[in-house]
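Example record used in the benchmark description.
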Amino acid sequence: VTCSPGFWRTDGNSPAAGAYLGTDNSEPLEFRVNGKRVGVIADAEYTAGGTTYHEPNVLLGAENNVIASGVYGATIGGGGGIPDYPSCGDGSQPCVNTVSGNNGTVSGGQGNYASGSNATVGGGLYNTASGSSATVGGGYRNNAGGYQATIGGGGSNTASGSQATVPGGYNNTAAGSYSLAAGQRAKANHSGTFVWADSTNADFASTGSNQFLVRASGGIWLGATSIPSIPSGRFINTSTGAYLSSGGTWTNSSDRNRKTNFQPIDPQAVLEKVAQLSIQRWSYKDEDGGITHLGPVAQDFHAAFGLGADDKHIATVDADGVALAAIQALLAKVTDQQQRLAQLEAQNRRQRQRLAAMEAQYNRQLAQLQQTLQTLQASQRHDRLQLARYDK
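Model output (structure tokens):
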């Protein structure tokens, strides 16, 4: 078969240098299959700084997919609706994929819309990337409206803040700049805020900027091991053995099997150091001035007891240990004083008993003396009466 030099063969070609497949005028290049349009490549131009630039638009997929007039550098990779079915899903929105922003992209799916410049929708259904350089990876009815905002997927999510992110999930909102919302009904309404919400069907919203918020009704795990464990009654559990109970009590790890280098202490020496330790009321500089605390400073505590990693912190286990040792010393003092007091009371009791015995003996002897005196006095009266009779 002899073909003209410009003929494009269906069984392979060997084009010469400078050969091309396309048009020599401004009309779009259209591709059809079975008589239906499946793709269009159209020249688009814009002028900047007095220079005209050409950035073609590439339109693939359903016949009713649209790249808006005047847009350049746009791409629709496929998907879209069927001409005989102008709407899909719940029927509230056309299935057509649309790019109306310069350099925007809709890769596929149905009913997706890239209206921001350099915006991208990867696929899914009824997703919108309206912010400049915004991205929606896929999912259903997601809207990335903020500058460089991103939604990975999921459904009914909104990223309206600049450079905000919703990785996925359902009905999440990242409204603050640089914010992140994930899970179900997480609302990052303030700048720089991270909000993670569990499956609880209720809004979980930030209350201020630069917050880190987590709603986890099943508990939180923080650890260096690969197997998380959150026993009943623990809200935050860790691989260190310490945990925050569901009742709000922080519990330190104190398992003997986790400890080594045991050494005896002198509770009395600890008590003497506690007695010399400066205990004051004070406030943290970063807290509200009306909030006060009571205790030593880490420098004094470390100098007195040499406990902990440095002289800038006081571990609660160390403070508790010092307090318990001092209590033991006080108990020993009290016990010793009680024993001495008991001895003094016993001695005093014996002395009172001896004194009572001496007083009883004295009273007996006094009674005998009084009886003897009365007898002598009676004898004297009798003798005087006898003498008086003799004198008469």
